[in-house]
Amino acid sequence: MSRAKPAPKAEAPTNPPKAEGLRLRARLRYLYHGTSPLAVKFRLAVIVIDFAIIGFFLAAPILHEAGLVFYVVDYLIATVLVLDLTARALAHTDIKDWLKKPATWVDLFVLATLLFPTLLFNFGFLRLLRLWTLLHSEFFWRTIGHKYDDTRVEEVTKASASLVTFVFVVTGFVYATFRDSHPGISGYLDALYFTVATLTTTGFGDITLPGNWGRVLSIVVMLTGITLFLRLAQTIFKPHKVFHPCPTCGLQKHDPDAVHCKACGVVICIPDDGA
């Protein structure tokens, strides 16, 4: 009596979905965190796109009058931002840890204003916070700033980003809040003029905000503006330091001609690129 032959086993798929997902995450991690020339070029392209998007955010109050064209560009940028945020999340080792970062929440809020431009248009001025998060991000300085051992370049850039971001965020807030309800602020340029005049404490007085809340806002702009100006001046004129982690205590910033770590006293050897 002949036995029936067993049915052939189904072949396992050569590329199971889980393996494909792992490979995708590995590629994204390589591009977003790698040090190869290809990864650096990819991150440079992302940074260029980021600056182009920030330029659109700056011009948004004026371009909003373009109607349909504005909304088409708005949703195209939303699509790009969705892809970028998804790729960053997948490239991160722990997505939960990535979601805890304040910069991530800023980007998610910016995305919300892009997805609902009519409903959240009055909060559109907060999109400029993306400039601050970009220039303070490890992503930016790992790509651009690795060329600079002089930490003053990084500090001046961050201080300038804080000042510029503050100016345009306040300008957007003044424009969204007081436009058409205050005779002196009929356009975006008027709001920018008021912000700069108040921030520098010039006080021409031709545009002043009404009521107690207007005075409170003016005081906040003046005090914060002076603080940011002093911070920028300090980073420009103070003695610069170089980035060179101490092998013993971990102190990362030292004077360019330092021989010993001022924290623990151990001998350090800072490379002299000019030699």
TrEMBL record:
Coiled coil: none annotated. It is a multi-pass membrane protein. It is found in: Membrane. GO terms for biological process: monoatomic ion transmembrane transport. The chain crosses the membrane at residues 42-62, 68-87, 108-129, 159-178, 185-204, 216-233. Gene3D superfamilies: 1.10.287.70. InterPro entries: K_chnl_dom (IPR013099), K_chnl_Slo-like (IPR047871). Residues 165-237 form the Potassium channel domain. Keywords: Ion channel, Ion transport, Membrane, Potassium, Potassium channel, Potassium transport, Transmembrane, Transmembrane helix, Transport. Pfam families: Ion_trans_2. This is Potassium channel family protein.
